[in-house]
Amino acid sequence: MKKLKYILFISLVILVSCKGKEGGGGDGGVDPPPPVPSPKAATLSAPAKNSECLDGENVEFKWAASENTNSYEIVIKNLLTQSLVTQTTTSTTVTIKLTKGQPYSWYIISKSNTTTDTAESEKWKFYLKGDPVANYSPFPADLISPKSEATVSAGSIKFEWSGSDADSGDTLTYDIYVDTSNPPTNRIKANHTSSSINHPINNAGTYYWKIITKDNSGSNSDSGVSKFKVAN
C-alpha cells in the first residue's frame, strides 16, 4: 500500500511539472505583442507645388491616402502674415476659405488611433489668385541652415536656403543679411545667384539672419528672421 501511494505521488509530481512546461511558464515566457505600425506620410496632390491657384476664396486641398492612418490634420500658413489655419478630417480632400492674393504653404500630418506617432508630408507653396497681376512676388525663402536656435562653431559658416516663384520664367537673386541685432541690417552679399553661401564669423554670440528674394521683375519677399548661436 505504501509503495502504491509513493508511485502515485511521484506520478502526480511529474504530471504537474510537465503541465508547467507546456503552459509556457518558467523560462519559456510569453511572446511580446507585435509593434503598432506608425502612420505613413501622405502624398500631396492639389493645389500643385509652386502654383498659381484658381480664382476664388474657397480652395480645395487634395492628397492621397496614407497607410496606417485614421485621420489627417492639414496645416496652412499665410506666408505674409504667418497666420495658421488647421483642420482635422478623415477624408483626403477638404475645402477651406482663404484670403485672395496671398502666398501660402500647406502640408498634411497623418495620425493613427493606435499610436502617438505621426508622419508629415512634404510642404508645398502656392499663390491664391487675387486681382489680375502681371507678375507674382517670389515665395519667401525657406531658411535651412543654420537651423533656428542651433549652436554652430566659430569660423566659416555655411548658410543655406530654398527659393521658389510661381512665375516659372523668373530669375531669382538673393540678398543675405547676418547681424547681432534683430532684425539684421548688415547685408553680407547682394544679388547672390545660388541658394548657399559661406561667411566667416569668429566671435561667439547670438546672431540673426534672413534672406530677401528678388525676381527680375523687381518684386521681392522677406524670409523672416532666424536666430542661431556661435560658440568658440
Question: What does this protein look like?
Answer:
The protein has one helix spanning 2-22; strands at residues 43-46, 51-53, 58-64, 71-78, 84-89, 93-97, 102-111, 119-120, 124-128, 139-145, 150-153, 155-164, 172-179, 187-192, 196-201, 205-215, 220-222, 226-231. It is mainly beta and 232 residues long. It folds into 2 domains: 43-128, Immunoglobulins (Immunoglobulin-like), CATH 2.60.40.10; 139-231, Immunoglobulin-like (Sandwich), CATH 2.60.40. Strands 2, 4, 5, 7, 8 and 9 form a 6-stranded mixed β-sheet that branches. Strands 11, 13, 14, 16, 17 and 18 form a 6-stranded mixed β-sheet that branches. It has a 3-stranded antiparallel β-sheet with strand order 1-3-6, with no helix packed on it. It is flat, with a radius of gyration of 30 Å. Residues 18-25 have low confidence and may be disordered.
Q: Give the C-level CATH assignment of the largest domain.
A: Mainly Beta
Secondary structural class: mainly beta
**Count of runs of 4 or more consecutive helical residues:** 1
CATH topology of the largest domain: Immunoglobulin-like
Oligomer: single chain
As residue ranges, the low-confidence spans are: 18-25
Distance between the termini: 91 Å
Helix percent band:
under 10%
Fourth-level CATH superfamily of the largest domain: Immunoglobulins
- Helices and strands, in order, run as HEEEEEEEEEEEEEEEEEE
CATH architectural type of the largest domain:
Sandwich
User: Based on CA inertia axes, which overall geometry fits?
Assistant: flat
Task: Compute the average pLDDT.
Answer: 88
Number of strands: 18
